[in-house]
Amino acid sequence: MSSTAQSLFSTRSAGFKPSAIREILKVTETPEIISFAGGLPAPELFPVEALAAAAADVLAEDGPAALQYGPSEGYRPLREWIARHVAATTGLSVRPEEILITAGSQQGLDLVAKILLDPGDIVLTENPAYLGALQAFRAYEADVVGLSADSEGMDPAELRHFLLNCPRRPKLLYLVPNFQNPTGTSTSLRRRAELAEVAAEFSLPILEDDPYGSLRYAGAAVPALASRPGAADCLYLGTVSKILAPGLRVAWIAARNRAFYDRLLVAKQSCDLHTSSLTQRIVERYVAAPGRLGAHIASLCSVYRARRDTMLAALARTLPAGSRWTQPDGGLFLWARLPGGWDTAALLPRAIAAQVAFVPGAPFWVGTDERATLRLNFSNSTPEQIVTGVARLGQALSAR
Ligand SMILES: Cc1ncc(COP(=O)(O)O)c(C=O)c1O
Known about the structure:
Elements: H1 3-8, H2 11-14, H3 20-27, E1 34-35, H4 48-67, H5 76-90, E2 99-102, H6 105-116, E3 122-127, H7 131-139, E4 143-150, E5 153-154, H8 156-165, E6 172-175, H9 189-201, E7 206-209, E8 235-239, E9 251-255, H10 258-272, H11 277-288, H12 292-318, E10 324-325, E11 333-337, H13 344-353, E12 356-357, E13 359-360, E14 373-377, H14 383-398
Parallel strand pairs: 1-12, 3-4, 3-6, 6-7, 7-8
Antiparallel strand pairs: 2-9, 4-5, 8-9, 10-11, 11-14, 13-14
Helix pairs in contact: 4-11, 6-7, 6-10, 12-14, 13-14
The structure holds pyridoxal-5'-phosphate.
């Protein structure tokens, strides 16, 4: 990089960090490597034909409108469907006027950070937390603080203690209550109630990020935090990335607080004017067929459930004694902790040499130097690949 370019960069952009996962994914792109690293859905399950037919219909029937600029809020019929879908799946009663369509939830995270965060503002997250959210908050120079989470989610007593003792008032509480990335664990109903209560007591807005809620393989759905009485300031993010296809880049923010909505809308305008008119209409056409999305999600769940079970059984046969790992009821990931002095970042090159990849846990942790954890994705490999991949991981582990 020339020194001229360096001298032109904003102070803010000097702190931008490349995503640790994207760097690993570059290495794992070769077909010989079985990758548990990315968060990719299974491509063979994308409803390609149905989406091709939806795209053909959209272009044949609404061609010029689908190719024209559109409203920044999003395509009205899709916002109407999203409002119904969110109410039916999460219990959050929301009107179409409260839905802002975004180019992926990742854009939602960026927009929320953009309107709320000044340099040095505190954002509270579960520890460990989703890397893309950490990247978005840090891009606005926020101080991210990770609070302990266990198999039931973030600890409300620790949250309360932090809020009582923090000299600066935190700006935002970021939570992934369903099948969290990276751990796969969910926040229990009791904890959701307690966390919402503490946040309301301290007037702390919640950002609830829910890309995985519909991918449930066991247990009953738990209502969204945003649906709780008193959680009107909660911003709720949903996406079609994991239930349909991430390449569509169609997602939404539900914001019942009008001031938040209006500010997000202006932030979106300066970012990309609006989400693609074409892909919004393709998604709307796809979901408009009664029962189609539900049947598709049911088939995803049955395939992913089997993959999760295969990985759990393979880990039980393979990981060293004293290892622990989560048993997620849904989503795409599980999270393991190796015993003793294991450093999973040091293990990764050996795993890649054995032709298997995972994500070392360290970058997901906020403010702690945790080296013995790793994230494993089970959605993007067949059961046969999972068995072979975990056996290769076993070889890498025994090559220490
Ligand atoms: C917790 C979480 N939030 C947001 C995203 C981004 O999703 P999208 O494809 O909708 O941008 C992901 C993607 O893996 C995620 O795991």
